[in-house]
Amino acid sequence: MPTQEDDSRDPDLLNVLKADLKYRHNKPGNVYLGLVHRLDRPVGGVMVFAKTSKAASRLSDAVRTRQLDKTYVAVVHGKPPQPSATLRHFLWKDTRTNTVSVVREGQQDAKEAVLDYKLLGSQDGLSLIQIKLHTGRPHQIRVQLAAIGCTLYGDQRYGSAVNKPGQQLALWATALAFEHPTLKETLRFRSLPPMQRPWSEFTLPEL
């Protein structure tokens, strides 16, 4: 489901969680829930929401200052050129088509995107990759990996030439770590993708 309401009018995570909080805590009126970050609709995994405006402000600052530690795993076509590397690209979003492309530095409205990747395994033309995000640009992982010749499995938008309709995007947010906005303790949350193809073709890293 989408992270927040979109043109599809399908149930979205933000409003579903608000309704759940209202029911569980028997709260009258509207329930506050702050959206701190997003996942693309086809992507699964762990997310954090803020139950107070103070928490939302502090967690949003953590995102902005790159103190929210996010780890993903992905299955891609092919094999990256190096076993591990830092990718830096400038990305530009076409809001008319909701697509993102790699452009030259200095292009108007382009934003820098940075991630680290590590190859975890390869077989039968596919590779399992672990990704650490340093920036949170729209479609960032999908576009940056496609730019080095490693289109994500199931990505219809950026890899229709190698993916079949109906395949699910193989990208999962496996770990999230941040400092609690009031207790100042480091919190870590983990999630594994479902053990079905293509995930089942690999041994996933211990969390």
TrEMBL record:
Do the record's keywords include Transmembrane? no
Asked whether the keyword rRNA-binding is assigned, the reply is no
Q: Which Gene3D superfamilies match?
A: Pseudouridine synthase (3.30.2350.10)
Highest taxon of source: Bacteria
User: What InterPro entries does this protein's entry cite?
Assistant: PsdUridine_synth_cat_dom_sf (IPR020103), PsdUridine_synth_RsuA/RluA (IPR006145), RluA_PseudoU_synthase (IPR050188)
An example Pfam family from this entry, by short name, is: PseudoU_synth_2
- Keywords, A to Z? Isomerase
- Catalytic function, reaction form: a uridine in RNA = a pseudouridine in RNA
Domain Pseudouridine synthase RsuA/RluA-like residues, every copy:
12-147
Provide the family line: Belongs to the pseudouridine synthase RluA family.
Indicate what this protein is called per its UniProt record: RNA pseudouridylate synthase
- According to its UniProt entry, this protein's organism is Paenibacillus phytorum
Organismal lineage? Bacteria, Bacillati, Bacillota, Bacilli, Bacillales
